[in-house]
Amino acid sequence: MHGLLKENIQLNRKVLSELSMHEPYSFKSLVDASRQSFPGNKKVVILPRKEGLSMLV
């Protein structure tokens, strides 16, 4: 949220939640813009989830 505000992107948490569910590529671009606003952030690589495996709690 702070990174988005630094980039002058004003979206509330509900809109971000809806974007993450229905528009994942748009949400990823917002996350990337937020990360770019902090010069110390390194590019984080997120490994894809394995299909067919579920965690039982």
TrEMBL record:
<keyword id="KW-0687">Ribonucleoprotein</keyword>
<dbReference type="InterPro" id="IPR035566">
    <property type="entry name" value="Ribosomal_protein_bL20_C"/>
</dbReference>
<dbReference type="GO" id="GO:0003735">
    <property type="term" value="F:structural constituent of ribosome"/>
</dbReference>
<protein>
    <recommendedName>
        <fullName>Large ribosomal subunit protein bL20c</fullName>
    </recommendedName>
</protein>
<dbReference type="GO" id="GO:0019843">
    <property type="term" value="F:rRNA binding"/>
</dbReference>
<dbReference type="GO" id="GO:0005840">
    <property type="term" value="C:ribosome"/>
</dbReference>
<dbReference type="GO" id="GO:1990904">
    <property type="term" value="C:ribonucleoprotein complex"/>
</dbReference>
<dbReference type="GO" id="GO:0006412">
    <property type="term" value="P:translation"/>
</dbReference>
<keyword id="KW-0689">Ribosomal protein</keyword>
<dbReference type="Pfam" id="PF00453">
    <property type="entry name" value="Ribosomal_L20"/>
</dbReference>
<dbReference type="InterPro" id="IPR005813">
    <property type="entry name" value="Ribosomal_bL20"/>
</dbReference>
<comment type="similarity">
    <text>Belongs to the bacterial ribosomal protein bL20 family.</text>
</comment>
